[in-house]
Amino acid sequence: MASLTIAEVNKLDSEEFLEVFGNVVENCKLAAAAVWSHRPFRGVDHLNQTIAEFLDALPQKGKEGVLRCHPDLAGRLAQAGQLTAESTQEQRSAGLDSLSQDELSTLTHLNQQYKVKFGFPFVICARLNKKDAILSGLTERVKHSAEEETLAGVEEVKKICRLRVADIVTSEAKL
Ligand SMILES: NC(=O)N[C@H]1NC(=O)NC1=O
């Protein structure tokens, strides 16, 4: 994946910026398109902060929409091999591509229960959680209120985003 310094990021025009950062928030080019206008970024932290502020400023329905842009973990798209490249790697890193039949049916059932209750999918940063933590997290979070889950989901989106940005932008200047 591209490795850019923040100075190089600041030189990207909006089209190039969208090409590079268009999926740091999964399937949500709007986030990248909106933060571009906040250049110049002082560093990776400033870029992440700007994306986080964009997400926090969304109204409730907008936050729910961002969550809806995420694929289910080990869901239909994953099984059809149709996830984005980033999501494929993340789900693999959590071990979600090698679930037992029992684990898969538990996850599918809980994902469905969660979606019926809240109207958006369960989102968790798969690179920071292994399959057991994901299953226990989902078991707990499905008991929460919609408001709590919108906020929890958006916090996970920020973590996913920070790791994706770290794959793109070098944190030190190139020598
Ligand atoms: N549903 C969900 O959490 N999806 C995501 N999580 C993650 O780390 N990558 C995703 O696509």
TrEMBL record:
SUPFAM superfamilies: UraD-Like. It catalyses: 5-hydroxy-2-oxo-4-ureido-2,5-dihydro-1H-imidazole-5-carboxylate + H(+) = (S)-allantoin + CO2. GO terms for molecular function: 2-oxo-4-hydroxy-4-carboxy-5-ureidoimidazoline decarboxylase activity. GO terms for biological process: allantoin metabolic process; purine nucleobase metabolic process; urate catabolic process. Its EC number is 4.1.1.97. The keyword Disulfide bond does not apply. Pathway: Purine metabolism; urate degradation; (S)-allantoin from urate: step 3/3. Keywords: Decarboxylase, Lyase, Peroxisome, Purine metabolism. It comes from the Eukaryota. Residues 10-165 form the Oxo-4-hydroxy-4-carboxy-5-ureidoimidazoline decarboxylase domain. InterPro entries: OHCU_decarboxylase, OHCU_decarboxylase-1, OHCU_decarboxylase_sf. Its main location: other. It is an enzyme of class 4 (lyase). The keyword Chaperone does not apply. One of its GO terms (cellular component) is peroxisome. Pfam families: OHCU_decarbox. Belongs to the OHCU decarboxylase family. Catalyzes the stereoselective decarboxylation of 2-oxo-4-hydroxy-4-carboxy-5-ureidoimidazoline (OHCU) to (S)-allantoin. This is 2-oxo-4-hydroxy-4-carboxy-5-ureidoimidazoline decarboxylase. The gene is LOC109470639.
